[in-house]
Amino acid sequence: MIKLNAVVIGGGMITKQLLLPVLLQEKKNGKISQIIVASRKKITIQRLIEEFPEAEIKGYPQIKDENPYAWKIALEKLQNPGIVIIATPDDLHAEMTLFAIEKGFDVIVQKPLCLTVKDAGKILESSRKKGVYVFTDFHKRHDLSLRAVQYKYKKGEMGEALCCHAWHEQRREIPLKYFRNWCERSSPLEYLGTHYIDMFYFVTGLKPVKIIAKGQKKLLVSLGINAFDSSQVFITWSNGAVEYLQTSWILPEKNPCLSNQGFQITCTEGEFRADNADRNSNFSTTKDGYEIFNPYFFKPYLDWNKPDTDQYLGYGADSVIQAINDCLRINEETNNLDKNQAFEKRVQMISEFEKTRPLPNQAIISTAVIEAGKMSMIKDGAPVFLDENLIPHYE
Ligand SMILES: NC(=O)c1ccc[n+]([C@@H]2O[C@H](COP(=O)([O-])OP(=O)(O)OC[C@H]3O[C@@H](n4cnc5c(N)ncnc54)[C@H](O)[C@@H]3O)[C@@H](O)[C@H]2O)c1
């Protein structure tokens, strides 16, 4: 059986809390061979090696204490079949994805794919040209509560979308602690909003045409950080439906869960509403206090067969595993073919995956909305329109 060599770029929160536990599990399941992490600082790699001894991580930078291009060395050395997992600040995704595609490696990129339609277009074009699989990790597509909406919508049971309200808000530790050094280059709209923009598209298949967004700067600015606290976006979709999306990342530290979030959609034949944070399974412990607990995202459980081992389950893992499985299938089905036949087979498989997965042809939708939203927000709610190629422009 083929195994993938994985390079993870970025050694921050999502790498530590989700990607390495998943990769380690998939290594034990025989799907991953080597796990390599490339981050900016050598100390980050050393800490991850200590925290995940079983993963036998190889890391970059190896010589200098700090190197913002260590990821390029890792990709130069990556052996086929290789997969590159990008988990760096959002504004670095495009350059890293394009480089990995040029090297011919399949890619999993954390949401959002990138921040501009121009970059998303380049990624789409070069990934198709090179026959490379590029998957954006929109894990909410794997939340069965939300996937059920897509099912009923596509089966015609909901009728046609009219309007939607989605909200996604996180505790202030996100901009204050986890990525203080890049939150000024992002916003709650780009960092959080991207999920429920993708969700509306995933459910309905409609295209966004007009965006109006407002943002507020009060709390973070008072703490010396020039970033938006919150944002509200009105997205008009191609059939005239309107989605109202509310995001913020300044919830109090004592909020009983990291994320408050939910999705409501009204259609001509029915309505769906869900609180995707409160799943009615809550803890109160002396260690953590009162906790609104979402067991479905990504949590450890006792492994049925090795109860002294943690098994991580949930839609956060399922999304990454879907992409790993797709890449394994591509490699298995092209393994014994000559170069031309392998390329044709790759292109054919990727064009099938494009219909159902957040490959660049789908991930570009939320990139277009966040780019237009940012343009609108900095002009205090000026309308921004998307043309037939999703290029945003003021009137
Ligand atoms: N899927 C999810 O649930 C989820 C959750 C949180 C974040 N994210 C996304 O994952 C990405 C990373 O977020 P995070 O929360 O881990 O951020 P983070 O700030 O905790 O980590 C980012 C990491 O990238 C590293 N980095 C920065 N510049 C680099 C460079 N030039 N080369 C190599 N490494 C570099 C930093 O040193 C850090 O280790 C973002 O795109 C974010 O939007 C996804």
TrEMBL record:
Enzyme Commission number(s) of this protein: 1.-.-.-
Keywords, ordered alphabetically: Oxidoreductase
InterPro entries: Gfo/Idh/MocA-like_OxRdtase_N, Gfo/Idh/MocA_Oxidoreductases, GFO_IDH_MocA-like_dom, NAD(P)-bd_dom_sf
Residue ranges of every copy of the GFO/IDH/MocA-like oxidoreductase domain listed in the record: 149-272
Pfam family, one: GFO_IDH_MocA
One annotated GO molecular function: oxidoreductase activity
Gene3D superfamilies: Dihydrodipicolinate Reductase, domain 2, NAD(P)-binding Rossmann-like Domain
Gfo/Idh/MocA-like oxidoreductase N-terminal domain span: 5-137
Protein name as it appears in the record: Oxidoreductase YcjS
Organism of this sequence: candidate division TA06 bacterium ADurb.Bin131
Lineage of the organism: Bacteria, Bacteria division TA06
Annotated gene: ycjS_1
